[in-house]
Design brief:
The protein has 417 residues and is mainly alpha-helical. The chain has 18 helices and seven strands. The longest helix has 30 residues.
Length: 417
């Protein structure tokens, strides 16, 4: 049977985005394969090493969330990463044979650094009520922008801006602040605001949390996580493919240097969550825009009522456009498809109001979450019992990892103790 491994970082309670992006897929995989799912608490330290006060509680909440959603310890091995010290040993040995350039050129590493600065800048300017995509394009912008329609203009310009950042955002010493200052001024941002954002980027903590050896080398630890169990496949989103390819390269390099021990795992591509937060941005704890799997009915009702709808639909009798409505995107996932068609038609004809539409969604979301809530209550009544499930799974995982490490040490001709 195919061996599958996957993990999640314990950063807090899980929300609907986690369910659709990860848990839903795990529920399907556990029925087909030999699966091992682990709580990646070491990986949580790569950019949150200062924030360990809540780490144990986050692990407990993840245990509750996984089991409440139906992840079955009778079908899969569940464990906590730091309880299997062999991960760290194998990561250390892998780091001896992994060229530094592989890590520095890893697209995910570069993209995360870029996104950290870029998202900070976007949020900063949004706080100043400045939308970058609505500012005039630079003179050198492609003719395609001029030919595009309104919606296309916004999309094309956003893509142009991101591409410009990717090309010029970093020089060899890091962020190119001179270029950033010039490009923001060119986009029509007031000089005072530009200087403020540049100062915050230069003097603040933005980006510093990932300028560590741990962050640079976390793909090596990830490779150890996967290969120590000789996993054949890893479920990942498309953005994680470079990590799987690096894992394959590490396995190949080790096998060529020492002995054929590790398989080259394949990626099982998973569909990225299409669910935005209640404000339209990516669903995130840091944005305070998430609907959590642990939210009660009243909280869900309140959050749904706060959701943004078609901004052009001001009055009840104005026809709406479901294509730009966050509520409708939720309906497409959590509402019966016949009802979705009905809502689409009535919205466009102003036959249903936004409040009524939201009430329907809130009821459907609560129906979806009710079984999870019920299982959560049962688990919380005897949490130590379910924590022991992870303890037993960790011991089982460590036994497998120990066998692999015996092979590794023998292949590398290390001293035997």
């Amino acid at each position: 049977m195919k061996k599958v491994l996957s993990g999640m970082r314990p950063t807090g309670k899980l929300h609907l985005g986690h369910y659709l992006g990860v848990i839903k897929n795990w529920l399907q995989l556990q029925e087909k394969y030999d699966c091992k799912f682990f709580i990646a608490d070491w990986h949580a330290l790569t950019n949150k090493y200062k924030e360990t006060d809540n780490l144990k509680e986050n692990i407990r909440q993840m245990i509750i969330d996984w089991l409440s959603c139906g992840i079955d310890p009778q079908k899969v091995t569940l464990f906590i990463q730091s309880g299997v010290k062999e991960h760290a040993e194998l990561a250390l040995l892998f780091s001896m044979i992994t060229p530094k350039s592989w890590l520095e050129l890893n697209p995910s590493y570069k993209d995360l650094k870029f996104n950290l600065y870029y998202q900070y800048m976007r949020d900063f300017l949004a706080g100043k009520q400045i939308k970058i995509i609505q500012t005039p394009p630079p003179e050198s912008f492609d003719e395609a922008f001029e030919k595009a329609s309104g919606k296309q203009k916004s999309k094309i310009f956003e893509e142009y801006l991101r591409e410009s950042f990717h090309r010029a955002f970093y020089n060899q010493k890091g962020i190119d602040f001179k270029w950033l200052r010039e490009v923001l001024l060119k986009f029509g941002i007031q000089k005072k605001i530009v200087e403020e954002v540049i100062k915050n980027l230069e003097e603040g903590d933005v980006g510093k949390d990932i300028d560590t050896l741990g962050f640079l080398a976390y793909p090596v630890l990830q490779a150890a996580d996967i290969l120590i169990y000789k996993a054949d496949a890893v479920p990942v989103g498309e953005d994680q493919l470079p990590h799987i390819e690096l894992t394959r390269e590490v396995a190949r390099r080790f096998n060529n240097l020492y002995d054929e021990i590790f398989p080259e795992p394949e990626a099982i591509l998973t569909e990225a969550s299409r669910l935005p937060g209640i404000d339209g941005r990516k669903m995130s704890k840091s944005y305070n825009n998430a609907i959590y799997l642990s939210d009660n009915r009243e909280t869900v009702d309140k959050k749904v009522l706060e959701m943004k709808t078609d901004p052009k639909r001001i009055r009840r009798n104005d026809p709406g456009n479901p294509e730009v409505c966050i509520v409708f995107r939720y309906h497409q996932i959590f509402t019966d498809q016949e009802k979705v068609k009905d809502i689409d038609t009535k919205c466009r004809k102003a036959e249903i109001g936004c409040v009524d539409c939201k009430k329907i969604l809130a009821e459907n979301l609560n129906k979806f979450l009710d079984p999870i809530r019920e299982r959560r209550k049962e688990i919380e009544k005897d949490l130590p019992k379910y924590e022991r499930v992870f303890q037993e799974g960790t011991e089982k995982a460590r036994a497998i990892a120990s066998e692999t490490m015996l092979e590794v040490r023998k292949a590398m001709k290390l001293w035997e103790f």
